[in-house]
Every structure is written in structure tokens, then in C-alpha cells.
């Protein structure tokens, strides 16, 4: 099963397993001076649709963050709706996994810090993550693989 996992944010982490090969990284949707949040959504939509076209995942998963309001919440909600839209448009499953569930799976604690998840990434992958977004996306990917009964290579 091919999976695309996304930690949706201004700097979105992503991880995928396609035909047994795992890859991950970070995509930056930061706006430039004078741009609105809307342009970030336009860029994110183009990126997520491009990722689908290239990877052809069977499932798109995203981190369901706990929101405290404000601009970060608006951006995250806007991006996750675009993941849902891309999945629906392409007739594939989408799933949301709460942040605490992912952290507990990889570190044993749902209250693990960003540093703890990044340390898990380094130990698991054998290199430093680009940032905490890549580490979160890889952790999400491995949780989803386990949840779907897929062996982690």
C-alpha cells in the first residue's frame, strides 16, 4: 500500500512509502511580503495535487493538531481541508491521526517534545531530520503503516 503522510503547516513535513521505498522532506509555503494566507493555500493545493500525481498514494494521512486559535490554526485547518479535498477528488482514503497518538507511538509518551521526536527520527532513519516537521511526518507515516498492518522496511 502506498501512503503519503503530511504534517500540514507553513513548513509542511511529508513522508511517503511508495512501492516499499520511504522518502521524506519538508516543503515551505511561507508567504512573501504583501501576500495573503490565501496564496499559501493555492501553493499547498498545487503541491498536494502534484504529490498525488507523482506518487499515486492509496492513502493520504495528516496530523490532527490540537488547535489553540489564531493564524496557525487557520493555516493548518485550511491545509488539512485541501488534503481531504485531494483525497476525495482522487477517490482515495484520507485519515487524521492526533499529535499525541503519533508521539506516544514513537516515543512512548503523548507529551513528547519536538526534540524527542527528532531524536527518534535520527535513531530510526540514521540522519538528522530537516526539522521537526519532517520528523513528525515520518512518525505519522510509521504509525499509519502499523495501523494498516503494513510492515515497516
What does this entry look like structurally?
The chain is of the alpha/beta class and 153 residues long. It has a single domain (3-147), classed as Ribonuclease H-like superfamily/Ribonuclease H (Nucleotidyltransferase, domain 5, 2-Layer Sandwich). 49% of the residues lie in helices and 22% in strands. It is built from five helices and five strands. It has helices spanning 37-55, 71-89, 99-107, 114-125, 132-147; strands at 3-7, 11-18, 21-28, 59-64, 93-98. Strands 3-2-1-4-5 form a five-stranded mixed sheet. α3 (99-107) crosses α5. The longest helix has 19 residues, at 37-55. The chain is globular, with a radius of gyration of 15 Å. It starts with a strand and ends in a 6-residue tail after the last helix. 32% of the residues are buried.
